[in-house]
Specification:
Among the domains are: about 180 residues, no CATH class; about 220 residues, Rossmann fold, CATH 3.40.50.12610; about 90 residues, Immunoglobulin-like. About 50% of the residues lie in helices and about 10% in strands. Helix 11 runs parallel beside helix 13. Pathway: Protein modification; protein glycosylation.
Length: about 850
């Protein structure tokens, strides 16, 4: 047989031996996709309506549609949010570009809006299912085919953050992060294995030994491409470069102690970082300086620095071996080189030094103050300052999480033998991601990958203990056709059956059992009241004069974006900013990127910056209005014209809103109710602007009027009103009111007149809302020593006018002015309210 015939025969043998695993992985991929599209009826609604399951998904669809409208130009700066500053978009371009290309292909160059929405809805489910493939290969090269198959099964049904962020409708870049970071680790691992097996040396590069270099080079370039893809989905992707660098330091040290060459590692690292640098460079925005959250020189410099680090460590190692220096000097030299490098960076570029020093804290430290109220930024292990494993168990199952810890212990124990590079890589990778979920629960969608691989690794060790490889070989030699299978089953031993049962019961069934309930919790967002309120806003408020789908240039450094005079902001809590923009087509002051929040970040001694938290917690109308005026630096413009509030802002999450000011004392106090103390809203809460607007319907406010409310829902609102009536002398109707309420900030009409000196004067009217509900609006004052009095009122009794707010909540009749025995009716025009005109009585 010729060498060519042997090569062909070997290739055929590989196909025969690998097709069962290929088929198994394909089946697992489709099962993974199936579970992710189970709740499609809650996302793809009748009439071609698609409702996405998170506010960031709505924003991604906005950036996608702007991209398609202006293809291939994407939106880098968005003036339609964080008014009046606008926001640079930190979302990477790749996630949207892949969806755009898919939409253009399926739509033959002209995709409909419904097709784009459908592609966007299914996209995370497809990427989540595809993640099965690199997980399989990592498991395979860690512990063989059996480990790879088990890892693929476990990640296919992994519950918690990974599943939720890869469900249909969760159109966010997180699942793309998981896919591309795992592909990066897979190709980097393959490059290491290939280079080490071929005993690659740097001399092979100079001597052009392509037979040695070809495969490691291809895998390294692919690793660099996948790392770039990962970073182009999320600028914070430097996390995985950090992981690889930490791994490399340990690998260099181990190789040096074992007197082995690390050229394979240096070659892989240099080629990977070089490929990544070349691919990321076109997306850098020089005006961003050094930024972790936007594509800046930081991403290029770190990649080049990592490349230089790999080269330097390899060079130092070769010198160590040439001079036969003691191995324990090597880690000390690495430490010294690292310190020296930081000193040089601090001198050459203090901003870059500051970013490098503080970047780890953004991932590994528990958030404090306002950021601690962000659910995805909270710690996996601490809730309310108390250590707990409940979140870890619910995200990874109890056995899965414990198995991941045990798997790391086993891999760590291997360090005392002769660990393979892939074993140390998985150990360092898993440990650092474990530290990341200590800081922020959002990184659980990374750790699910590690849990699946480590659990499968333990399962593979169990199967090895019962000699599964021998059984595998016997099956391959005995089964030549389906008819041979029953006979071959007699080869299975009882301990092997028991091992499989243990794996199914303790590893596979828990993840599947946890995943199915998770799929039943997927619903399209926003909830109906917010959708209705934002839709109403888009139809009944003046056009702000902005081209919604245009690509705008960012303002020059230090300058503000130049808005038209017709532009205005909409104040609400940051949770709802994307809904206001994408459904309401209006400009929110704050958004889910926590832009426009205001408040304090480090100390109570800081100045309380104007923003959403400062406005909503303002203790008086005057201070709230001062915040609105301060948000926009232009003296003739206020930061917002409309305010949107919901029942959650007024009750359940109010303390979270206040946390961003670092001043939460006094909003709630303990009351003895029944047989226990209960924390209930106190005077400070009812004095806040949020309570005045939502809970008290804006009664008595001079420049804020309710213009619309949605249908009422059962919320904590009723309890708050009962507390107000019982403990604070209120007389509120104890009924549920609109879940979302829209208010307008106006100049207010000035009603003036005369009465007897120092006489009490009252003005009131009945407000009829669009829901048919009525409530009393009233003010009272005392005439001065000359008998003069003045009221500023926000409601027009004459109805809306063209070109202005088309409100559907208004007085049911004229204002009634009363003092002494005198009663007068006062009508107020909309022009008087908007222009602040005087009405003499």
């Amino acid at each position: 047989m010729s060498s060519q015939d042997r090569s062909v025969s070997s290739f055929k043998d590989k196909i025969r031996s690998s097709w069962p695993y290929t088929l198994a992985v394909a089946i697992i991929v489709f099962m993974s996709l199936w579970i992710r599209i189970l709740p499609s009826d809650n996302v793809l609604l009748p009439g071609g309506i698609v409702k996405f399951t998170t506010n960031d998904a709505w924003y991604h669809m906005r950036t996608l549609k702007v991209l398609l409208e202006n293809y291939p130009h994407r939106m880098f700066f968005n003036p339609m949010t964080n008014y009046p500053n606008g926001s640079y978009i930190h979302f990477g371009p790749l996630f949207d570009q892949i969806m755009a290309i898919t939409s253009l292909f399926l739509g033959m160059g002209h995709p409909s809006s419904h097709l784009v929405d459908t592609v966007g809805a299914y996209f995370p489910a497809v990427l989540g299912a595809l993640t099965v493939i690199p997980v399989y290969y990592i498991g395979k090269y860690l512990g063989g085919h059996k480990t790879g198959i088990l890892a693929a099964i476990l990640i296919a049904f992994a519950p918690g953050e990974f599943l939720s962020r890869s469900m249909i409708g969760f159109t966010d870049h997180h699942v793309a992060e998981s896919l591309f970071s795992t592909l990066f680790m897979m190709f980097f691992m393959l490059a290491l294995i290939s280079a080490k097996e071929r005993k690659l040396r740097f001399e092979d590069v100079f001597n052009k030994k392509f037979s040695v270099l070809k495969e490691p080079f291809i895998y390294s370039v692919l690793a660099g491409a996948m790392y770039s893809a990962y970073q182009l989905c999320w600028p914070g992707g430097s996390l995985f470069l950090f992981i690889v660098l930490v791994y490399a330091m340990f690998q260099y040290i181990l190789d040096n102690f074992r007197n082995e060459s690390s050229d394979y590692l240096g070659f892989t690292g240099v080629v990977t970082c070089l490929a990544s640098t070349i691919l990321i460079l076109p997306f850098v925005h020089p005006d961003m300086g050094f930024s972790l959250y936007y594509y800046s020189w930081f991403h290029v410099v770190t990649a080049i620095g990592a490349m230089a680090g790999f080269a330097a460590l390899s060079l130092i190692e070769r010198e160590f071996k040439r001079k036969k220096m003691r191995a324990y000097y090597y880690p000390l030299l690495i430490l010294g080189a690292g310190i020296l490098g930081l000193i040089i960076i601090k001198i050459a570029s203090p901003p870059l030094y500051s970013l490098i020093i503080h970047a780890p804290s953004t991932v590994f430290e528990i958030q404090k103050g306002g950021p601690s109220t962000i659910e995805e930024a909270s710690s996996m292990f601490y809730r309310g300052g108390v250590f707990t494993l409940s979140k870890a168990f619910s995200n990874f199952t109890t056995m899965g999480f414990l198995a991941s810890l045990l798997g790391m212990l086993v891999l760590a124990a291997n360090l005392f033998r002769r660990p393979k590079p892939q074993e140390l890589l998985v150990l360092v990778w898993s440990f650092l991601i474990l530290l990341a979920i200590y800081g922020q629960i959002r990184f659980a969608y990374y750790y699910s990958i590690n849990v699946s691989i480590l659990s499968a690794y333990l399962g593979g060790l169990l199967l090895e203990t019962v000699k599964w490889s021998e059984l595998d070989q016997k099956f391959k030699s005995s089964v030549k056709s389906p008819a041979d299978i029953p006979k071959a089953l007699k080869l299975v031993k009882i301990e092997q059956v028991f091992a499989v049962l243990l794996i199914v019961v303790f590893l596979i069934y828990p993840v599947y059992g946890s995943a199915i309930p998770d799929t039943k919790m997927v619903y399209g967002q926003p909830i109906q009241p917010w959708e209705e309120a934002c839709t109403w806003l888009s139809s009944n408020t003046p056009d702000p004069g902005m081209n919604y789908n245009a690509v705008y240039e960012a303002p020059k450094d230090g300058e503000m974006f130049q808005y038209p005079d017709t532009a205005y902001g909409v104040m609400s809590w940051w949770d709802y900013g994307h809904y206001i923009e994408t459904i309401g087509h209006r400009m929110p002051n704050a958004n889910p990127f926590q832009a426009g929040v205001g408040g304090r970040r480090v100390s109570i001694n800081e100045t309380n910056q104007p923003g959403a938290t400062t406005f909503l917690t303002a203790p008086s109308e005057e201070e709230a209005s001062a915040v609105l005026e301060a948000i926009d630096p232009r003296p003739e413009k206020a930061g917002a014209r409309y305010i949107m509030s919901d029942a959650r802002m007024a009750t359940d999450i109010f303390i979270s809103i206040a946390t961003w000011t670092l001043d939460t004392n006094g909003y709630y106090q303990a009351y003895w109710i029944g047989k226990e103390y209960r924390s209930l809203p106190a005077t400070r809460y009812f004095n806040s602007m949020e309570a005045r607007l939502h809970t008290l319907d804006g009664n008595g406010l001079k420049q804020y009027r309710m213009i619309h409310e949605t249908e009422a829902y059962q919320t904590s609102e009723l309890l708050y009103k009962q507390v107000y009536n019982r403990f604070h002398g209120g007389k509120l109707p104890e009924v549920y009111t609109g879940y979302v309420k829209v208010f307008e900030y106006v100049k207010g009409a000035n009603i003036t007149g005369t009465a007897s000196p120092n006489e009490s004067v009252k003005i009131n009217t009945t407000i009829l809302t669009n829901q048919g509900r009525t409530f009393e609006y009233s003010q009272s004052t005392t005439a001065d020593s000359q008998g003069r009095y003045e009221f500023t009122v926000p409601y027009s009794t004459e109805g809306p006018i063209a070109g202005q707010t088309q409100f559907d909540t208004a007085p049911s009749g004229p204002y009634v002015l009363s003092y002494g025995d005198t009663t007068k009716e006062v009508k107020v025009s909309e022009e008087a309210v908007l222009k602040g005109e005087e009405i003499k009585v």
